[in-house]
Amino acid sequence: MGAGIRESTPTACRRTRGYIDMRAIISAIMAASVLGLVCSTGTPEALAGDAIPPRLEPSAPASDLSAQQRPARRPPTRITVYPRSYSYPGPNAVRQCTAWLAQEFRLSGNVIVPRMRCWWEGG
Fold this sequence. Notes:
Blueprint: H1 2-40, H2 44-47, E1 94-106, E2 109-121
Antiparallel strand pairs: 1-2
């Protein structure tokens, strides 16, 4: 029993220490990102003028595939879905079904499978 108490105490300390370490890591990452933003932004005078490189002339011929224009994309096909006209069969309707066996031709060989078709008849 004494061993169980000793094991539980360091585990609790490790959890607390891990929480503090995680907080220190997160704050270090945040400080580094803020420092990076501050260093990357310059004064407007430094950004204007020589900081922007001049535009280079294209060295590849105009027959390059990247220089050619792509043909105009046609608009996507519109599909209109019309709901089936469904009439409520009524409170005394009866479901009629017919069942049969059908042969299917599969790669593994011919298979006989059950099929069923049902409909409602008004009562």
